[in-house]
Design a protein that fits this description.
8 strands, 39% strand, Thiol Ester Dehydrase, Chain A, 25% helix, six-stranded antiparallel sheet, alpha+beta
């Protein structure tokens, strides 16, 4: 894994506006990982668990729920970025699209960029765009955006 990008304040985000922040190392969406997520959110549909039925389906294997990649963003972000001297609050998402299923065994990479930075009366808001790609394909499996509000930490 490469070294983490260190962000210490508004200027670091502004310098990256319109640019890629990182592309993550690949992670494998294993059957176990998908099924553990499904159990945690009580999504017990056959296409997440019944390997035999899935093999005979158009999926060909177990598939992840749509929100699976969205749920991975937080941990993958912090594997790649270290915030220093900042407090953060997730404000929400304006869009999230699922373009194709994530299948058990897919190798996923997260492409993450700073779309823009808005200075607020207190702190600032960073608008992120992201896309998850599978097996190094050009077309993403999911994509979207979200907004995080940041403030300098106080002593």
């Amino acid at each position: 894994m490469s070294e983490k990008l260190i962000i210490t304040g508004l200027e670091d985000f502004q310098a990256r506006a319109g640019q890629a922040l990182f592309t993550s190392a690949p992670l494998i969406a294993s059957r176990e990982m998908i099924q553990q997520f499904c159990r945690s959110v009580n999504q017990l549909d056959w296409f997440h668990f019944d390997e035999e039925r899935c093999a005979a389906s158009p999926f060909g294997t177990i598939v992840a729920p749509g929100m699976f990649t969205l749920s991975l963003i937080h941990s993958v972000y912090f594997e790649n970025v270290e915030l220093r001297g900042l407090r953060a609050l997730f404000l929400g998402s304006d869009r999230f699209r699922i373009l194709r299923p994530v299948r058990a065994g897919d190798q996923l990479s997260l492409h993450f960029m700073v779309e823009r930075v808005d200075v607020r009366e207190e702190g600032f808001a960073v608008h992120y765009d992201f896309s998850w790609h599978s097996n190094a394909e050009d077309q993403p499996v999911t994509l979207g955006n979200f907004i995080v509000r940041y403030w300098p930490e106080t002593a």
